[in-house]
């Protein structure tokens, strides 16, 4: 199965999603397009004019005039750190021009629409920790455009120098933006692994940001879309191309392996030249031509090292020469940047996961040099020494075992990943009064209720709701209603095979303490933006 890794990169690490986390599945990450399809527009000042290229998620549609006055972000009542300065100015009929800095364009767009803006133009700023923006903001009635840094700065300088500047969209010519909008790097929305069994997650990655696609004719006929739902079908089509050239004799696992092992590991960004974590890119950007031409095979296609409490630090890799000539192999180590999955007792989100060249593993490979005859295999032993464990930051370290062949077509990489901490010491139950978890909330207001509240469980709009969340993933969670006067411990054991019933849900709760089981949740991810809920009804017990 080839499937999307997911589009919730801002949630941080340990956010593998089904079905991408299944055994043998090829989860696909997303990479920025090197050439973003777009159109030309003309900037008119008092003394001159010039053209630039913009990209839009859908064909631009303006009511009335095709020429809009430019307003800079500081005059639009907005700054680039996601804080509203002033919302008294109406932005209707104008074009805000905004640098991509500390705030996601999607968040800024919500502020702009509140000020009656229907369109805005973003440009890349090299000082930004954000790597790129996507043109499909998916906000009804609002059009987000992007351009390159050079064009954006030129527009800003024109406004500052001459005051009134307009942009005319009336004569668009097809073109593209190249270079500095995140092309060639991992898209920030790609989900991070590993899963909660500490298995590596993403197999490899493909172009998925700002991809030209067909679209309903009623909405313009085309759209420039982004997501792992764009990179995944491209990967599936590459599988088909590979099999048309090589035949259908290889298993799905072997296909995943050859695409991951011949992929190119990517740096984090153009300014942070550190190899991005395997937790997000897997093997890297796949190359179907290299996959077809490859004269070697390696197994397994990834090494999951577990955490440092149960460290699986000695593993074996077997490389096979399927080419016509002997291959001299040199085996080395390419460390990727380490990301710190937690900070101050909380998960590090999105732009906080900048990889760093420290707290990396050291690797020994035996033998490190050998020759593989055609049709033969050699097995090497790989020994890892993890970085010093840190329970507070939970470093996720990763990298690649590099098989460099005397034949270029025989060179391969095998990604590995581990965590320098004791994962089982993470608390599972999320306790956060700000988000009302865990808590009983009113079915109408969604606000917390006090202990003196009474309920009519026979009436739907009066049935209370229990909200809960998970600080870490859990294979099984049971939610029980217990008698108020019962005495229970703060934690219990429960066998996953033990059936839930009205008299007993947890294995070692005192007999008679449970009124009934309200719900059972299995294979739960950690909570990110939505709590779990159970509506308490009379029929539950």
From TrEMBL:
Family assignment from sequence similarity: Belongs to the peptidase S8 family.
UniProt keyword RNA-binding present: no
Location of the C5a peptidase/Subtilisin-like protease SBT2-like Fn3-like domain: 304-417
GO biological process: proteolysis
Matches recorded under PROSITE patterns: SUBTILASE (PS51892)
SUPFAM superfamilies given in the database record: Subtilisin-like
Cited Pfam families: fn3_5, Peptidase_S8
GO CC entries: extracellular space; membrane
Biological source species: Tilletia walkeri
Protein name as annotated: Peptidase S8/S53 domain-containing protein
Top-level taxon of origin: Eukaryota
Ranges for domain Peptidase S8/S53: 1-266
Organism classification: Eukaryota, Fungi, Dikarya, Basidiomycota, Ustilaginomycotina
UniProt keywords, alphabetically: Hydrolase, Protease, Serine protease, Signal
Any GO MF annotation of the entry: serine-type endopeptidase activity
């Amino acid at each position: 199965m080839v499937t999307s890794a997911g589009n919730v990169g801002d949630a941080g690490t340990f956010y593998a999603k089904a079905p991408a986390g299944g055994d043998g599945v090829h989860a696909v990450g997303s990479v920025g397009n090197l050439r973003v399809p777009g159109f030309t527009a003309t900037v008119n000042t008092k003394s001159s004019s010039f053209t630039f290229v913009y990209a839009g998620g859908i064909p631009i549609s303006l009511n009335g005039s095709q020429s809009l006055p430019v307003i800079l972000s500081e005059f639009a009542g907005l700054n680039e750190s996601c804080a509203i300065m002033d919302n008294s100015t109406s932005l209707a009929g104008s074009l805000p021009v905004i640098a991509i800095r500390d705030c996601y364009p999607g968040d800024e767009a919500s502020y702009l629409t509140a000020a009656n803006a229907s369109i805005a133009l973003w440009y890349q700023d090299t000082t930004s920790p954000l790597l790129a923006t996507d043109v499909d903001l998916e906000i009804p009635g609002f059009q987000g455009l992007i351009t390159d840094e050079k064009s954006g700065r030129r527009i800003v300088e024109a406004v500052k120098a001459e005051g009134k500047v307009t942009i005319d969209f009336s004569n668009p010519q097809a073109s593209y933006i190249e270079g500095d909008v995140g092309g060639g790097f991992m898209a920030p929305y790609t989900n991070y692994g590993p899963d909660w069994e500490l298995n590596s997650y993403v197999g490899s990655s493909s172009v998925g940001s700002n991809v030209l696609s067909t679209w309903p004719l009623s909405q313009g006929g085309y759209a420039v879309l982004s997501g792992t739902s764009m990179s995944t079908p491209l990967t599936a089509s590459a599988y088909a191309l590979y099999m048309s050239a090589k035949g259908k004799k290889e298993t799905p696992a072997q296909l995943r392996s050859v695409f991951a092992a011949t992929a190119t590991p990517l740096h984090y960004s153009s300014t942070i030249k550190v190899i991005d974590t395997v937790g997000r890119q897997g093997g890297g950007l796949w190359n179907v031509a290299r996959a077809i031409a490859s004269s070697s095979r390696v197994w397994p296609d990834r090494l999951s090292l577990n955490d440092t409490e149960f460290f699986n630090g000695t593993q074996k890799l077997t490389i096979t020469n399927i080419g016509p000539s002997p291959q001299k192999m040199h085996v080395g180590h390419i460390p990727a940047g380490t990301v710190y999955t937690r900070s101050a007792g909380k998960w590090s989100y999105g732009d906080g996961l900048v990889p760093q060249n420290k707290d990396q593993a050291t690797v020994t490979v035996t033998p490190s040099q050998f020759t593989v005859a055609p049709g033969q295999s050699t097995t090497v032993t790989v020994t890892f020494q993890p970085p010093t464990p840190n329970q507070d930051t939970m470093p996720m370290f990763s990298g690649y075992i590099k098989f460099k062949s005397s034949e270029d077509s025989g060179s391969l990489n095998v990604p590995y990943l581990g965590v320098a901490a004791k994962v089982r010491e993470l608390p599972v139950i999320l306790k956060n009064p700000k988000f009302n978890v865990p808590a009983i909330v009113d079915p109408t207001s969604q606000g917390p209720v006090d202990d003196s509240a009474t309920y009519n469980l026979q009436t739907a709009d009066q049935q209370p709701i229990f909200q809960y969340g998970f600080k870490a993933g859990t294979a099984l969670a049971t939610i029980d209603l217990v008698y108020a006067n019962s005495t229970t411990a703060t934690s219990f054991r429960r066998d996953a095979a033990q059936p839930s019933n009205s008299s007993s849900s947890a294995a070692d709760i005192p007999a008679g303490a449970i009124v009934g089981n309200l719900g059972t949740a299995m294979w739960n991810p950690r909570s990110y933006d939505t709590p779990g809920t159970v509506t308490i009804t009379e029929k539950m017990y």
